[in-house]
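Need tokens for this chain, all 128 residues.
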Amino acid sequence: MTDTRSTGGIPESADESPSDDDHRDLLARLQDAERTEGGLDELFDALSSPRRRHVAAYVDEHGRASLEELAEHVAECESPDRPSINSVQLALHHADVPRLVDAGLLAYGDDNHHVERGDRLTAVASLE
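Here are the structure tokens for all 128 residues:
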């Protein structure tokens, strides 16, 4: 029987358990990925919202997106609640996208109507 006390109730197999060196390596790579003064706390805070994680993943996959595209994607991801696209677009414009931009995960495109990968999103996405 697997002891789950140290893993918070999630059994770990010997094949999947990361070593202490792996944890230190990931922490070192995250620290190397720092591009703003906010540090890791700002990065994790920006990604604490499922909505912002959906936005970051979409932009990472597509490279660039308009607020309308992002709003449609987020509304679909938040189904069955499926908020209106207009309300999602407003929230993205006023709250979520600026927070991701401030954290360096997204950047505004040349035309300011699109967002694209920021330096930190590129760095964090390449950690795998």
